[in-house]
Amino acid sequence: MNNENNKMQNMLWLDIAECKRSNILISGTNSQGKSLCAMAICDKLMKHGFQVYAIDSTGIWKRKSSIPRYYQVSEKTMKYVLPNSSMIYDVSRLTASYQREFLENILGEIWLRRLDNYNKWLMIAIEEAHLLMRNIRGRASENLLRIASVGRNINIRVLGISPSFVGLDAEFRRLAQQRYHFKLPNESNTKRRFCSIYSKDWYRVAKELDVGFCIYYNNERMKIVKIPYFQTSKVAQAYIEPQPKQEPTLWQKVKVALSGSEEPEFDDIDSESEIEIDESEEYPEEW
Ligand SMILES: Nc1ncnc2c1ncn2[C@@H]1O[C@H](COP(=O)(O)OP(=O)(O)OP(=O)(O)O)[C@@H](O)[C@H]1O
Ligand SMILES: [Mg+2]
Description:
The chain has one domain (2-241, 270-281): Rossmann fold (3-Layer(aba) Sandwich). Strands 9-8-7-1-6-5-2-4-3-10 form a ten-stranded mixed sheet, with helices on both faces. By secondary structure, it is of the alpha/beta class. Residues 263-280 have low confidence and may be disordered. The chain has helices at 2-9, 16-21, 34-47, 61-64, 96-116, 142-150, 170-174, 188-197, 200-207, 250-259, and strands at residues 23-27, 51-56, 69-72, 87-90, 122-126, 156-162, 176-181, 213-218, 221-226, 237-238. Helix 5 (96-116) packs across helix 6 (142-150) and helix 8 (188-197) crosses helix 9 (200-207).
């Protein structure tokens, strides 16, 4: 029985089937464990064969998440690459308006590519989402709204992480049927909104949550859960764009012919690291 309890306590509540149906929202006041929770979710999704793109405006994902590569986006180039493996787009050096522009551009490109080929599930995690998703119904967020609403048809879903419960477009909350609400700020707008969506009782609970605890909402069912503390030993490597293959010079051809050696082999930058699913971490049937 004790073992069973420990197992439940060390389990991350995440409904993989629901991850493919709707989006995910993580909210709560500062330093409560939102980012680590999002990283734990992404880690588990990768183990279930998802590809993850994390749009990170904080700069911490490359140190704390288990996503193996990061791409440092700079204001000068605003360039993006779309590998077939998981990637952190570190936009922490961009101002919020450039971040918004970058997000829209990359989502537009992802959408177009996915129309042709969308076998693998893709989760797009957006840090500090209130900076980018305050209003997703305007022209400046057309790609974001499109992906959050109908991205399911081409296997794309969105995970939004925000310290502000009211700072996110309510449309996104409606499109997110899995939610993790960490401790709420003591603020009147938040109180009013939270009470009207859930109830006064749940607001009282949300106000008193300890670090690492949250209210887990899944399709109108709610419970208090402890999120296991997420740590990884992996350090993300900077993504290096593959260089176009150059024709060997005459001298190189002669050398190869004389030594009989083959061309050196390169790592396949797009192959995912080995995936292992820990069955003990499966989503529990019982609530
Ligand atoms: N599941 C957890 N269990 C226990 N402690 C945790 C847990 N998650 C986070 N913490 C503690 O809280 C700290 C902050 O975590 P994290 O950066 O994920 O919070 P955050 O809500 O994203 O904060 P911010 O709003 O500043 O981005 C961690 O450094 C850790 O000490
Ligand atoms: Mg955070």
